[in-house]
Amino acid sequence: MHIFLGFAPWIVFWILSGNDSFFEAILVAGIVALLLSASRFIKGKIKLLEIGSLIFFALMTVAAFAADPPWLEKWTHVLGNAALTVIALVSVLVGKPFTLQYAKEQVAPEIWEKPGFFTTNLHITLVWCACFVLQTVSSALTITWPHHETWFSWIIPTASFVAAIKFTAWYPEYRRAKYGQAPAQ
User: Fold this and answer.
1) Which of 124, 117, 27, 118 is nearest to 69 (CA)?
2) How confident is the model over 42-86, as pLDDT tens digits?
């Protein structure tokens, strides 16, 4: 369940950007990212997702002051979803899937070295990466076809996020049942 805390700044941003001003949404999401990162940093347990979130919201706050807010507001969901894609993809490319950090908090250390543990987290991270790619494309399509905003801004992103959550919960148990290895989380 801890992985979902890592998404808190993004969820705050998605909710507020639809109801409040763009700048307030960026600022509040940035504060949430800062609070999460600071508490984890103090404990020595800061996560890649939290670092990426902090960087994104800090850059967006600076850009909101320096750039044309209407342009930035128009493209911010595309940029945010692309940032999440990059975070997930880079974590895979460097051999440290971002879900691994969260999974290690859920299982005993002797399980960490089992090959199925890494593989399970790699697959889960790849599903999250696919989710973020779909959300990035969907956000871009909202700009191209605003008359389908309900689909591209709400239905597709929400369905992909829920699917990734369900997969994250289901897949470790599936692997354990199939291969007899300890679940990832």
Assistant:
1) 27
2) 888 889 999 999 999 999 989 888 876 778 888 989 999 999 999
CB 56 within 8 A of CB 91: no
Q: Determine contact, residues 47/98, Cβ cutoff 8 Å.
A: yes
Q: Where are the domains of the chain?
A: 2-179
Rg of the chain over all Cα atoms, to the nearest angstrom: 17
Q: Which residues contact 101 (CB under 8 A, 6 or more apart)?
A: 45, 47, 48, 49
**What pTM was computed for the model?**
0.89
Report how far residue 147's alpha carbon sits from residue 175's, in angstroms, rounded to the nearest whole number. Answer: 42
Neighbour tally for 181: CB within 10 Å: 17
